[in-house]
Amino acid sequence: MKRTILFLFLSSSVSGFSQDEVEWFLDGQEWYYNIYCFQSFFCGFQHYEVSGAEMLGEHEATILESTYYTSEGTTEPISETQYLRYSNDTVWRYATQAEQWHMLWDMGAEVGDVWTIQEAVYYGYGFEGEEPTDIPLFKVRVDSIAFWDDIPNSSLSNRRVIYVNPVVNETEESLYTFGPILDGVGPINGAHDLIGNSSATALPLQSPYFQCFLEGGQLAYGAQGSPCLTLGTDGIEQTDIRPIYPNPSSERIFWDDSLDELRIIDLQGRLVYRNNQLSSVRSVPIDQLSGGTYILQMEVGENSFIQKLVVKP
Length: 313
Description:
The protein is mainly beta. It folds into two domains: 10-231, no CATH class; 252-311, Immunoglobulin-like. Helices cover 0% and strands 44% of the residues. It has no helices and 22 strands. It has strands at 10-11, 29-34, 44-56, 59-70, 78-87, 90-95, 100-106, 114-118, 137-150, 157-165, 176-177, 181-182, 186-187, 197-198, 210-215, 218-222, 252-254, 261-266, 271-275, 283-285, 292-300, 303-311. The chain has an eight-stranded antiparallel beta sheet with strand order 7-6-5-4-3-2-15-16, with no helix packed on it. Strands 1, 8, 9, 10, 12 and 13 form a six-stranded antiparallel beta sheet that branches. It is elongated, with a radius of gyration of 21 Å. The chain starts with 9 loop residues before the first strand and ends with a strand.
């Protein structure tokens, strides 16, 4: 498990904490999540982006374009539209088939609350021909509530975090999870995507997880890995490591410190090079790569380091 340091204050009460004004689903906000990989390592990611608003019944809905990039099974991105809104501390999702709003998560929840939510995994809010009453529901229980005063490697601060558990009680388990939910951002860390994912999915080669949250093209919170680093890191603390050089390069790259593993990923999230036999190696050829910008992911013990690489044609 990679080393991640977070300072949490767990509480069942909001007293004693000052919550910043939080707005959801603004123009320029984007989310990235890794996706399940069954045949390869780091096969792609899920991207959400706010792309406007429209009226759905009596409510104004934020339009989120969701794009699924993967190198497994298809080379073409898969896109769909999500409709979300935020009101009274609650995020709602619109079920297009049922033409109804359903609660997604309640940021004003208290410990012990149980949410009943319409399931979204592999259903798209209902298969064609299904009746709205056929669309499954699931339940999660609010386990604990935290406040992050200062969020490491982030421009955000003073945010409420809700932890939920798919085990509702001793006899009922919904097999569904969000991961921690950060106010104004959504599911983070071990979360599978912005909407949530079934915890009963078959074991993958790589478990998916939250990558990053961006505002106006700048990294506001999350991992410093692909594709986040390619979109901006102003104000984000970078880890100290001697860089790979030369950069730009066209034939071979070098490094001075020992590496356990090196991965090169293109801007579409495809793994184009991987080497975990580097104990006595201090360089690798890159002349097989097309010209362009790539992300280097370097593993050293329990730590992971990220660097951009420009390959000259």
